[in-house]
C-alpha cells in the first residue's frame, strides 16, 4: 500500500522553474530521504506536498494521499489534512511556535484540538512527550527562553501530537548535537513503525545514513540520483553525489594554526553563567585573539549561545569579568544568529536590508556582488522577502551582511547549520580567510565536533562535567577545555 504518491511535482516563480518535475512515493515502514544542498529545491518540494508554498510560488503536478487526489496548485484543499493525515516538522522552529505559549501548551494544544483529548489529559501527554525528547524541566519555558536545539525538539513534539500517519520532516536535526540527532532519528523511525510514512528533507549525511530506506539526491531543482540509501552511500554514481559525500567535515584537512602573538580582542576571566535558574557553566576563562578562530562546541542547551551573548555584552555573567578591546565604530562586534529568520525584517525585501547595511558601512555595490559570488548566492534572491528563500540561503545572506560591517569580532552561532556539506565548506573557508586577511577575531560555535576540530586554533567544549575550573587560551592548538553542564 502506498501512503503518498506524487507525480511530476514542479515549482515555478513566475517564468522561472525552481523545481523540475519530481515523482516519488511513500510506503509504510520505509523512510524516504531527500538529500541535497541548500537551495536544491528540497524544502520547496515538501511545501508543495503540504500545500504551504509562499503565495508568489506556484506548484504543478498531482498528489495522492490514500484515495484522496489533490492538486498542489490549489493548496487550500490540503488544509484539512494538516495534523490529521500529514504532520510537518518545519525547518524553522521559531516560525511554528507561538511566542506567547510555553512549551507544554504548544504540544498540549495539538493533543486537545486535533486528537480530541481532554485538557488535563492533553497536558499530561504533552509533559510525557517533552520528557521523551530530553526536555523535562523546560515545560514552562517560552520559545525565546529555549536554545535552537530545544526549540526544534518542542516543534517535533507538537508535530507528532496530532497522530498523523505521514510525517514530513524538513531538516529535523538542524542545530542538534550528534547525540540528540541520533535520538531524533530513532524517535522518527519508532513513530513511523511498520504502518506510518516518513519523508525527511536533509543535508545531514549522518542522519540520512541512520534512517536508511530510500533516497533521492537533488541538485539545483533536479534529481541527479535515486535508490536505496545504503546502496547510494556504498557506491554513488553521479559526480555531484560523490562530491557531496566527500565534503563531510570528517574528511576535511585541518586548518593550519594561526601564528602566536596577536592581541586579545575579547577576554573572559573565571566567568559563570546561568539562565532560568539553571547553571550553564562556571569558571570559564578565555582569550579570543585578533586573526584567530576560537571554537566552541557541546550539546544543545549547554550555554554556547549564552557565552557568546555575554562576550558581546548582550547579557552579563553571574560572576567573573569580561573585557572587550574598543573598536573604531559602534558596530565593531557582530553576531551571526543561529536562526537567521530572526535577524531579517519579514516585510522588507532582502535587497533593501542589505542595501541599508552597505550604506551604513560605506560599502560599495561591488562589495555586495563579490560576496554574493563568494557565497554562491544568486543576486535575484535580493528581490525576495525572507520567507521566500531557503534557510541556507538566508544563513549565507546573514553572513554577507555581517562581513559588510568589517567587524573586529564575529560571534558565529552555528553559522552553517542549514547548509549542506559542499556549501558549508565554502562558507567556513570564507570565514576563516576573513579572520586571517582582516585580522578579525572569530568565535565559531558548532555542534559538529569535526568541523570545530579541523577549523579552530583553540577549542572550548562546554557541557562536560568533571572539571571545576575550565579555561582556554587562544593559540594553544587543539587544546580542549571542558565546562560544567
Concise structural overview:
The protein has helices at 42-50, 93-96, 103-113, 119-132, 148-160, 178-192, 205-211, 229-234, 239-246, 304-312, 350-361, 365-374, 391-404, 421-438, 449-455; strands at 4-13, 16-26, 32-36, 58-65, 68-70, 86-89, 166-170, 197-202, 214-219, 222-228, 264-275, 278-289, 293-297, 319-324, 333-336, 409-413, 441-445, 458-461, 471-472, 480-482.
Structural notes for this entry:
It is a single chain. By secondary structure, the protein is α/β, with parallel strands linked by helices. The chain has 3 domains: 4-249, 3-Layer(aba) Sandwich (Rossmann fold); 261-325 and 408-485, P-loop containing nucleotide triphosphate hydrolases (Rossmann fold, 3-Layer(aba) Sandwich), CATH 3.40.50.300; 347-405, no CATH class. Helix content is 32%, strand content 25%. The strands form 4 sheets. Strands 6-7-8-3-9-10 form a 6-stranded mixed sheet, sandwiched between helices. The longest helix has 18 residues, at 421-438. It is globular and about 65 Å long. The N and C termini lie far apart (47 Å). Residues 465-471 and 473-485 have low confidence and may be disordered.
Number of domains: 3
Helical fraction? 25-40%
CATH architecture classification name of the largest domain: 3-Layer(aba) Sandwich
Q: Taking strands numbered 1, 2, ... along the chain, how are they ordered across the largest sheet?
A: 6-7-8-3-9-10
Strand content: 25-35%
Which regions contain 5 or more consecutive residues with pLDDT less than 50?
465-471, 473-485
Structural class by helix and strand composition: alpha/beta
CATH homologous superfamily heading of the largest domain: P-loop containing nucleotide triphosphate hydrolases
The dominant shape is globular
Q: Measured on Cα atoms, how large is the radius of gyration?
A: 22 Å
The name CATH uses for the topology of the largest domain is Rossmann fold
Overall pLDDT metric:
86
Amino acid at each position: 500500500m502506498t501512503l503518498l504518491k506524487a507525480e511530476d511535482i514542479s515549482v515555478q516563480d513566475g517564468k522561472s522553474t525552481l523545481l523540475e518535475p519530481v515523482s516519488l512515493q511513500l510506503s509504510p515502514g520505509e523512510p524516504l530521504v531527500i538529500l541535497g544542498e541548500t537551495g536544491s529545491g528540497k524544502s520547496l518540494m515538501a511545501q508543495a506536498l503540504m500545500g504551504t508554498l509562499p503565495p508568489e510560488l506556484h506548484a504543478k503536478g498531482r498528489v495522492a494521499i490514500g484515495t484522496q487526489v489533490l492538486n498542489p496548485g490549489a493548496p487550500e484543499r490540503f488544509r484539512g489534512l494538516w495534523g490529521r493525515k500529514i504532520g510537518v516538522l518545519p525547518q524553522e522552529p521559531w516560525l511554528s511556535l507561538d511566542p506567547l505559549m510555553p512549551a507544554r501548551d504548544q504540544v498540549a494544544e495539538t493533543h486537545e484540538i486535533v486528537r480530541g483529548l481532554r485538557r488535563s489529559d492533553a497536558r499530561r501527554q504533552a509533559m510525557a512527550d517533552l520528557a521523551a525528547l530530553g526536555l523535562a524541566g523546560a515545560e514552562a519555558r517560552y520559545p525565546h527562553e529555549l536554545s535552537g536545539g530545544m526549540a526544534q525538539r518542542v516543534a517535533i513534539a507538537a508535530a507528532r501530537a496530532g497522530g498523523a500517519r505521514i510525517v514530513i520532516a524538513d531538516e529535523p536535526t538542524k542545530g542538534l548535537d550528534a547525540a540528540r540527532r541520533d535520538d531524533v532519528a530513532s524517535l522518527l523511525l519508532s513513530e513511523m513503525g511498520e504502518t506510518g510514512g516518513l519523508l525527511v528533507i536533509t543535508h545531514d549525511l549522518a542522519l540520512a545514513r541512520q534512517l536508511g530506506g530510500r533516497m533521492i539526491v537533488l541538485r539545483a531543482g533536479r534529481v541527479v540520483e535515486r535508490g536505496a540509501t545504503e546502496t547510494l552511500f556504498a557506491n554513488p554514481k553521479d559526480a555531484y553525489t560523490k562530491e557531496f559525500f566527500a565534503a563531510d567535515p570528517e574528511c576535511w584537512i585541518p586548518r593550519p594554526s594561526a601564528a602566536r602573538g596577536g592581541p586579545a580582542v575579547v577576554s573572559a576571566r573565571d566567568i559563570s553563567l546561568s539562565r532560568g535558574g539553571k547553571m550553564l557553566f562556571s569558571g570559564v576563562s578565555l582569550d579570543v585573539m585578533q586573526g584567530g578562530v576560537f571554537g566552541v562546541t557541546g550539546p544543545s542547551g549547554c550555554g554556547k549561545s549564552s557565552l557568546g551573548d555575554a562576550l558581546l555584552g548582550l547579557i552579563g555573567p553571574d560572576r567573573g569579568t569580561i573585557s572587550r578591546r574598543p573598536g573604531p565604530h559602534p558596530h565593531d562586534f557582530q553576531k551571526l544568529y543561529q536562526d537567521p529568520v530572526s535577524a531579517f525584517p519579514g516585510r522588507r525585501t532582502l535587497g533593501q536590508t542589505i542595501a541599508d547595511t552597505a550604506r551604513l558601512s560605506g560599502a560599495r555595490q561591488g562589495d555586495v556582488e563579490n560576496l554574493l559570488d563568494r557565497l554562491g548566492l544568486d543576486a535575484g534572491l535580493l528581490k525576495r522577502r525572507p520567507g521566500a528563500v531557503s534557510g541556507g540561503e538566508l544563513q549565507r545572506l546573514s553572513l554577507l551582511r555581517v562581513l559588510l560591517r568589517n567587524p573586529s569580532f564575529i560571534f558565529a552561532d552555528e553559522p552553517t547549520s542549514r547548509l549542506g556539506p559542499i556549501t558549508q565548506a565554502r562558507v567556513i573557508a570564507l570565514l576563516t580567510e576573513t579572520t586571517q586577511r582582516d585580522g578579525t577575531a572569530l568565535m565559531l560555535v558548532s555542534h559538529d565536533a569535526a568541523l570545530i576540530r579541523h577549523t579552530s586554533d583553540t577549542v572550548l567544549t562546554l557541557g562536560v562535567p568533571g572539571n571545576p575550573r575550565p579555561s582556554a587560551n587562544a593559540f594553544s592548538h587543539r587544546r580542549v577545555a571542558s565546562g560544567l553542564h
